[in-house]
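Question (not urgent): is this output format expected?
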Amino acid sequence: MKSIIDEKAQKLLGLLEGLKRVAVAFSGGVDSALLAAAAVRALGSGAVAVTAESPTLSMRERRDAGELAALLDIRHEILVLSELECPEFVKNDGERCYHCKKFRFEKLCAWAKEKGIPRVVEGSNVDDKSDYRPGMRAVAELPGVSSPLLESGFSKAEIRELSRRWGLPTWEKPAAACLASRISYGTPLTRENLARVERAEEIVGAFCPPNVQYRVRDHGPIARIEAEREIIPLLADPERGGELAEALGALGFKWVTLDLEGYRMGSLNDQLKDG
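Got this back:
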């Protein structure tokens, strides 16, 4: 007897087979990794993974995407772009993710059309519908983009479980988001502040065990560290805390704080609720 996940996987593969050729929007995260793996199973050489290389993508994520594409044996293309060319994105208001998604998927669709690829697929899932995700609206507005995981009814937990069954190393990878999601709404986005928050997270990551969630939220002069609650005592240790404060202070942060509420996805969206 087939499980619910087996049935959804069969539906996913069927949807992809019906598309014939696809460009997978590929960040190397949990969702896009499963989608790329399914595209290879369904279409073989008819699938290509495309990673948008921009100032909002950390070097670590860029490296992981390349290594994962090689593991999946899927052709991997790099599309160099910069959302900083989009003034609405740079403004960094509550619609930032909408403008980001629209900008990059318009570029990706144009690239795919030039290569004779009729469809771009991306990794939204049903859980995304319950969060504040203005980027999903942008995807829905573009006729050349599909969301097969969402159409197949996959939740994040089911994506992780199928990834585990298929032997993908991403099944337990912590969730990731673009660097812009670390910077407080209303602060204009620049290469400099995106690079600063990337470096800040590299520093914090060196103090953390593997496969745990942490973020450095950039509030101008304040670096607010979020981490899973079980590692807060580790980061709060006087010696480690002093080293962290010194290292992040060297990046230009005047105050370095540790959020006792711990890591929570999209915590900067609380600003929008307050407004």
